[in-house]
Amino acid sequence: MAANPVARLFAFYLPQFHPIPENDRWWGPGFTEWTNVAKARPLFPGHVQPRLPRDLGFYDLRVHEVREAQADLARECGIEGFCYWHYWFGNGRRLLERPFNEVLESGKPDYPFSLAWANQSWTGIWHGSPNRVLVKQTYPGRADEIAHFNFARRAFEDHRYQRVDGKPVFVVFAPQDLPNTADFIDHWRELAHKSGLPGLYFVALSDRYDGTDRYNNPILAPFDAIAPHPPHDFLQDLPQHRAARWRRRFRERDFQRLGVQLPAHMRRPARYDFAKVVARAFHDLPDDPRFLPCVLPGWDNTPRSGTRGVVFEGVTPELVAAYLQKAVARVRNRPPEQRIVFLKAWNEWAEGNYLEPDHLHGIAYLEAVRRVMYPSPSGEAEAASRPLIEPSLLLRA
Q: Which residues are CB-neighbours of 133 under 8 A, at least 6 positions away?
């Protein structure tokens, strides 16, 4: 295998695979992401649901052996580290914090990581109640920004933390929701310098805000880097004139979105060809080191959203490899530390974007990633001659 992967692949990592009191209260005792995954059912002919885990099973992220096995799998296929979704709602309130806290405090797994602030309110949108606010994202001001930084600083100073030119990477999910991106970033940079850090490397996930340019909006100017936000980068670019909407909805039998109310048994999720997603990927991403590609290994959020969901059909390991190859080509000639590609995601099972082994494809998607990340002839020969990961490494004691 090649000594190093051809790019720095950061995989977003969802911690919602353990029970917490809040989810017990909102959705029922024992709720985790697996609850939605296991209850999913096909919603149209050929719809593959439920999608069930294989090698790692219905794991609980409070178990350290699971976290070690995940890191082993990811490392083997060329993923540099996990970018943990991090929930800070203001006034020190956090949720789903236990898995990352244990990674940080235990020093295990010895595998790189970074943080992505999922700075949005939690609502009942998964169950068709988007106006039901479960936890409101707030921005109380300077004191809270200091408290937030002081928490994050513990992670930034860890030897495993992912950096660019010595600066810890910090991703912001919804920069448009910050009261003022420049004020926040300037404040945290000041706090970082006072703490002895060389700075911070801020990354924004981009969207089209009120129809504006996805990559050149003024709210993005303070960030060091910007990455597209799949699947929105594809969905927001679909033709929006009335005739195009009618054609899409007729094909999908999705008439309720055009004001025609159908019986529940006739409703269908929106469906799109994944090959078209791959073909269109990065079509408007500027050719500049500041812009980082983000790859989606699939999408089907019907386990959460039912007929209100979106399904990308025809996802295959070969198409995921082609998607990733396009991303790698974008960064190949950049300075080594800036050859960053995001992967959304490692384990977002209820949205159908995950790489972990399942009963349908096994480790095929992991193998596809490895072939792209280690493209040398010797690496390919070795990949063909042995399994992706030794079975003894899975859930080792």
A: 121, 122, 123
pLDDT, block means (10 residues), the chain with 397 residues: 84 98 95 97 96 97 98 98 98 97 98 98 72 92 98 98 98 96 98 98 86 84 96 82 50 53 67 96 94 98 93 97 98 96 98 97 97 75 46 41
Closest CA to 306 of 347, 339, 350, 245: 350
CB 226 within 8 A of CB 290: yes
C-alpha 73 chain-centroid distance: 17
3-state SS class at 56: coil
Amino acid at 366: L
| Contact present, 108 and 62 (Cβ < 8 Å) | no
Task: Assess contact for 266 and 306: CB atoms under 8 A.
Answer: no
User: Cα(288)–Cα(269) distance, rounded to whole angstroms?
Assistant: 36
Q: Would you give the distance in Å from CA 152 to the centre of its chain?
A: 19
Best CA proximity match to 373, nearest among 339, 315, 324, 317 = 324
Cβ pair 307, 270 in contact under 8 A: no
CA angle 223, 225, 228 (to 5 degrees): 110
- Terminal C-alpha separation, the chain: 27
For tokens 């390991």, the residue is 317
Tokens of 278: 């791959």
CB-count burial class (<10 Å; 0-12, 13-18, 19+) for 114: buried
pTM: 0.90
User: 133: helix, coil or strand?
Assistant: strand
Partners of residue 135 on adjacent β-strands:
122
- Domains of the chain: residue spans and CATH: 8-231+271-393 (3.20.20.80)
> Closest Cα partner for 36 from 46, 26, 173, 44?
26
Pairing assessment for the beta strands 353-354 and 347-348 based on DSSP bridges: antiparallel
Within 13 Å and on the Cβ side, how many CA atoms surround 387? 10
CB 284 within 8 A of CB 206: no
